Amino acid sequence: MSQQNTNPLVKFTTELVDFARGERRGIRNPFVMVPVEPKIEHRLTKRLETWASAPDGDLKNWEDVSDTRGADVTITSVRLDALMPETRAFETTIDLGALDRVETDAVEDTLERNLAAELVDALIEKHIKNGAVKNDRSSVLVLLNLGSLYPFTRASELLDELDRKNVNTTVGIPFPGSVVGGRLSFFNEQARHYYPAHRIGKKVIAGYMEDV
């Protein structure tokens, strides 16, 4: 097997396009996750943004690709940290007052209780409700910079909210951490199962970025 075929970043983009084409099926929504070395997460974000705007290099070519029904496959990248200021949870933490008068627990509690749900609301409002992204399997949403939300929300909470709110797109999420015994460990925390997600087992490290 060639080096390119074992590159987790190549596999990630290939499986996203395969799900969008309808050649693969998930248990529920087609979610694909790939672990990434935390220190290169932002570098990976830029590479995937480039791929989403125009495929190049060895990442999967999605232009002029259609699904089994004839619908065009599209790729849209979304930075989660850019959505965060549009949530009420974030605005509330700002409105609590000057940092030297606010209890840290109050800020953390507000974000942990509400951030995942409101991020998905903002995603729907900004990208799906207006028709910019078709709410269909043939549309791929790549959610980036998940590490910027740590420790206030996690990928599992976002996936649950996407499922609960009937977001039917194909979703890809690089997450800073590792796959441990088939479970995902976010920033080396206790590993958890992410039931509906398809997982790429190998982590994206700096060397794999050089290949693509």
From TrEMBL:
<dbReference type="Pfam" id="PF08747">
    <property type="entry name" value="BrxB"/>
</dbReference>
<dbReference type="InterPro" id="IPR014858">
    <property type="entry name" value="BrxB"/>
</dbReference>
<keyword id="KW-0614">Plasmid</keyword>
<protein>
    <submittedName>
        <fullName>DUF1788 domain-containing protein</fullName>
    </submittedName>
</protein>
